[in-house]
Amino acid sequence: MPVMSAVERAFCRSAAWGSFARHVVLPWALERRPLSGDVLELGGGAGAMADGVARRFPDLRLTVTDLDPAMVDAARRRLTLRGVTVQQADVTAMTFEDASFDYVTSYLMLHHVIEWKTALAETRRVLRPGGQLLGYDLTDTPTARWIHRLDRSPHRLLRRDDLADGLAAVGFEEITVSPTLGGQVMRFRATKAIDA
Ligand SMILES: C[S@@+](CC[C@H](N)C(=O)[O-])C[C@H]1O[C@@H](n2cnc3c(N)ncnc32)[C@H](O)[C@@H]1O
Predict the structure, then answer these.
(1) Of all protein residues, whose CA lies closest to atom 26 belonging to ligand 1?
(2) Residue 85 domain-assigned (yes or no)
(3) Virtual CA dihedral for 76, 79, 80, 86, nearest 10 degrees?
(4) For 52-76, how does the pLDDT look when each residue is reduced to its tens digit (9 = 90+)?
């Protein structure tokens, strides 16, 4: 069940994206802060970002998920030797137990999830109290709309305020959604309260 166009799938699997994601995008997305404990990546595609996470933080326990079986296969090929768990999962209906993860990461995937509010609620459910969601996504701009219309993949682009309000609506706290690249991209971080 691919949710991306053939072009996007090829891009996600390319060596060029793998290298750029690992060396440039990942440190920026993490705000150069460490990850630790049990970490879940949503919509990890071919595993480009997870490869960087596993190399930088070899002691954490990383689980990478994606809806598309072809992406799951590609990620498995790239990540199994690094001790990463890769499995198929729909972010809107995950089978993980409540409070299973210290961090949930979402890189450039939320705009493909039509039921994005359900995805945020599911994310909060699987986080431990005090745990954090972090990542980045495209913002709803004319450029992003034009690219996705051309490429015809299912998508639902969000504005910064939509995302911040959606995170608050499902109970996240300490929410930041920061614009980058002239507002084309937004980086976000949100916490599940310790007493949740
Ligand atoms: C643009 S790719 C980004 C891949 C990866 N995060 C990266 O940065 O290289 C978006 C990914 O989200 C996945 N995806 C879309 N909808 C999903 C859903 N409902 N549940 C899980 N994954 C989903 C797609 O299959 C795709 O691999």
Answers:
(1) 45
(2) yes
(3) -50
(4) 999 999 999 999 999 999 999 999 9
